[in-house]
Amino acid sequence: MQIPSEILNILEKFSQANFEAYIVGGCVRDILLNNSLSNKPKDWDITTNALPEQIQTLFPDNVYENNFGTIAVKTNSKDPTLKIVEITTFRKESKYSDKRHPDEIKFAKTIKEDLCRRDFTINAIAIKLKDKLKKTTHEIIDPFDGQKDLKNKIIRTVGDPSKRFQEDGLRLMRAIRLTCELNKDWQIEKNTFKAIKENAQLLSFISKERARDEFIKIIDSPQAAKGVLLLKETGLLKEIIHELEETIGVTQNKHHIYTVWEHLWRSLDYASKKNFSLEVKLASLFHDIGKPSVKEGEGKDSTFYGHEWQGAKIATKIFNRLKFPRNQSEKIIKLIRYHQFVYDPEITTDAAIRRLLVKVGKENIQELAQVREADRIGSGCPKALPFRLRHFLFRVEKVLQELEGRQPSLKILKIDGNDLIKKLQLKPSPKIGAILSILLEEVLDNPKKNNKKYLENRAKELIKLSEKELKQKQTMAENKYKSILEEEETKIKKKYYVN
To answer: What is the pTM for the complete model shown?
Structure first.
């Protein structure tokens, strides 16, 4: 076991002061799963028989802003997962009247008493290091056979599952989240699963923010679709997002082989497997949520006109209710609202693409295409990126190059027509355009020439040429410029596999 030095130092300090101290919680689970999981623990927790004031004396650089006996000790570590280590005094079980917090804190005397109050067996394992210098010498305290459940990939509560869930209703969602985060083979033990279904209404006691955070962790896990299906099966989905429940059993038209509900979770599954952003995953899950309320007719010719507008409205209500951050919710709503964008290579103009970029935001356009990918696969289409979508991305990049000044043009020159009129005392004429074209070709050939002094002097030389010579140089420059643009377009086409 590779225990960080910051943790070893804390344990050693407790030992020197004659206190017991153990590593506990999710970090122990992750350590024991180290052979099969590549990620290291996201945070570290320690429990001890030292009282809060004794912990503060041992570790003066701390924060204590709760009533649960948990001290946040600062380690000054460069590793963000170790900057703060939470240390909690052994605690006993107590009554949870509000289904969220214990009515009173009772300190325990032994590690086993402390482990009794924890949620799942795989989180109720403690490690005690016997000797700092011999890092492999340790003792594992596992009174509820958590190691056995780790081996068998089982999520099981400590003791009576109903009692555990009534202490904190968020544990209902946490059980599902753990099955999605750990591995696709993980399952919830049958009595624990039954208790989740029977206690689903406990989520009503949980703050919207806590439920939102747990839901986000499920959606951002490797098995997001599995998580959503478990939320539905256990009755938790209707407690947090009843609007998704309303898509179940809603049939679609000839363009779809699945119901709206099946289509949505399959779209999410694709977005999850492609490791798209959280916003794309959520947009994939919600993009057709407006269909049930706008559906007209039945069978293969049924319609869903305006479902993207309606879906954006419904999503807005959901995100407001769950108190999503405003910037995040606005982005997802845009992806939902415009996921039906129409593109035809032969009809769609650059102006139309520019308008879409303004509506969606150029920073979101790639993710809009990703939602379309997920939508297609979720509909049963064999190709995520057909020619039209690839061609759309090609056109978008071309337009963005122009908008962002990345495409070679007269705009990059450190001199313009007005400068030439003043310096050369010319009247507006085609000569100015010819000179600028020639200067652009020279700058593209050698960017170091793009300074005002050189360009002014070079313009003075060019104005002395005959009209015929100037025209010849202009033609050569424009042909070179056209060749550069064609070469750049070929690169973008190759990038998106567009002929």
So the answer is: 0.83
